[in-house]
UniProtKB/TrEMBL annotation:
Organism of origin: Neolewinella maritima
One of the GO BP terms on file: proteolysis
Name of the protein in question: Beta-barrel assembly-enhancing protease
Source organism superkingdom: Bacteria
EC number: 3.4.-.-
Gene name, Swiss-Prot/TrEMBL: bepA_1
Gene3D superfamilies per record: Metalloproteases ('zincins'), catalytic domain (3.30.2010.10)
Domain Peptidase M48 intervals: 66-245
UniProtKB keywords: Hydrolase, Metal-binding, Metalloprotease, Protease, Signal, Zinc
Molecular function GO labels: peptidase activity
Record bears the keyword Zinc: yes
Length: 495
């Protein structure tokens, strides 16, 4: 079962490091002593344990040439960094979210979504250097050492409210994706390292500053895909000015006089890259979630955010005080699966039913789970409704939960969603084709807006493609200029 990450990039990292004694270590970048609970050997082991989790949550995007490009440039840059001997690994992951991130030990990840939004190799190289910088400066390790010093594992960037996030560990397992958020000082230092490393291998790091404009536009853009890369970073426009200054200094101290940008070469590399959601892995349209490969659908509560990940689909209320998830349960019998859930979660069942859902065998439970807040030590009750539905040789578990005092408000919405689960038979939904980046040549001098219209981009998506191309719609383009459009899809309107 593969359910791709969709639209919302809300990522968290839960680290179980055990009891470690602090020691002083020398930061490879600054040369200064810093408190660290984690040796380099342990750091590498951490990365090796997180990597399968990242792959499980996102999936690998299969594009051997683009993966080879990412690995080649990453290893070239890592080789001139302060930590060349780490077992560096660079992965292209299958998410349309605009994001890049790193975990300890030299593991760096770029989503296909961020690759689609770069407009030249120099932009890519700057961000690559930034992520390598998080590892070389041991920001990932410092973050975890700080969390250990405060007395607990980090659960950073949760989509849920803190009250709900601390509850329901068995239900929450697998719902957190892997990412670390750093402080602004660390982000600024990584910007400096991005300039340093990309300049060292011959790229014009001023282009990295240009990418911050794209991030700034995405944060409130029509795509509704605010990039996580932006969420805890300094203001993009301030970063742009700072990177310009750093670039001038770095190039003045360098022996080279010509720095690579390579716009056309990069655009040709991403020609054919899958853009947006992959319908085969599930997509949202008109208030419902459709999964053509597994041939099911269900409704989404109005205004709830949906996250589509390889192991489950989850939905979160606008106030982030309730959530739903759908995942596979064990076995082929709904009653047995329900009983196993009761045992594992210690659900106090208030009602149960074996009523079918849209003709499919189902067992539905309503009850409460009592959980202890890991920070305060206080107990809190969660209201839960969950159904186990037999379909296509699988048992699908659809669960809704909120803190008990809000459960009566949300229970009808959750039940409606559960009751909407049904077989997908609509051929127009089953045969949905993905969109892919299509690089086209502008035949005559014109504006970006007119070039997009000429390429078949509908009026409703012009701003989206303006951001994608890193230009304003009124930008004048010369004849022979390359721009990004898309091919595939249906009506040209994204779900």
């Amino acid at each position: 079962m593969y359910l791709s990450l969709s639209r919302l990039s809300v990522l968290a990292l839960v680290l179980s490091l055990g009891v470690l004694l602090p020691s002083c270590a020398t930061n490879p970048v600054t040369g200064k002593k810093q408190i660290s609970f984690i040796s380099e050997e342990s750091e590498i082991q951490m990365g090796q344990s997180y990597d399968p989790q990242v792959v499980a949550e996102f999936g690998i995007y299969e594009d051997p040439q683009l993966q080879s490009f990412l690995s080649e440039k990453g290893k070239e840059m890592a080789a001139i960094s302060e930590r060349p001997n780490l077992p560096w690994t660079f992965r292209l992951v299958d998410s349309d979210v605009v994001n890049a991130f790193a975990v300890p030990g030299g593991f760096v990840y770029f989503t296909r979504g961020i690759m689609a939004h770069f407009n030249n190799e120099a932009q890519f190289a700057g961000v690559l250097g930034h992520e390598i910088g998080h590892v070389t400066a041991r920001h990932t390790v410092a973050q975890q050492s700080k969390q250990q010093l405060l007395g607990g594992a980090a659960m950073v960037g949760m989509i849920l409210s803190p009250e709900l996030a601390s509850q329901g560990e068995s239900l929450m397992q697998g719902m957190q994706l892997l990412f670390l958020k750093y402080g602004r000082d660390a982000e600024s230092q990584s910007d400096e390292l991005g300039v340093k490393y990309s300049t060292a291998i011959g790229y014009d790091s001023k282009e990295m500053a240009g990418f911050f404009k794209t991030l700034d536009r995405l944060s409130g853009g029509a795509e509704n895909r605010a990039p996580s890369f932006l969420s805890t970073h300094p203001d993009p426009l301030n970063r742009e000015a700072r990177v310009q200054e750093l670039t001038i200094a770095a190039q003045a101290a360098d022996t080279k006089t010509d720095y690579e940008v390579d716009r056309d070469g990069y655009l040709r590399r991403i020609d054919g890259l899958l853009y947006g959601e992959d319908p085969d892995q599930g997509y949202v349209e008109s208030g419902a979630f459709y999964h053509p490969a597994l041939r099911f659908r269900f409704g989404i509560p109005k205004d709830w955010q949906l996250i589509n990940a390889p192991t489950m689909v989850q939905m979160v209320s606008p106030n982030q005080d309730a959530m739903m998830q759908m995942r596979l349960a064990q076995g082929t019998d709904t009653r047995a699966a329900a009983e196993e859930f009761v045992t594992q979660s210690k659900l106090q069942v208030s009602s149960s039913s074996d009523q079918a859902i849209n003709g499919l065998p189902a067992t539905t439970l309503v009850g409460e789970i009592t959980q202890q807040d890991q920070q305060s030590g206080q107990t809190q009750k969660l209201g839960v409704i969950t159904s186990f539905i037999a379909y296509g040789g699988n048992i699908y578990m659809l669960t809704g939960l909120s803190v008990a005092q809000n459960f009566r408000k949300y229970a009808p919405l959750m039940e409606n969603t559960i009751r909407s689960f049904s077989e997908l038979t609509d051929q127009s939904k089953l045969n949905r084709q993905p969109e892919r980046i299509k690089i086209v040549t502008v035949p005559v001098a014109t504006t970006l807006q007119q070039a997009l219209l000429n390429a078949g981009i509908p009026q409703t998506r012009l701003q989206e493609f303006s951001v994608l191309n890193g230009m304003e719609l009124n930008t004048q383009l010369p004849a022979g200029y390359l721009i990004k459009t898309v091919s595939g899809g249906t009506s040209g309107v994204k779900p």
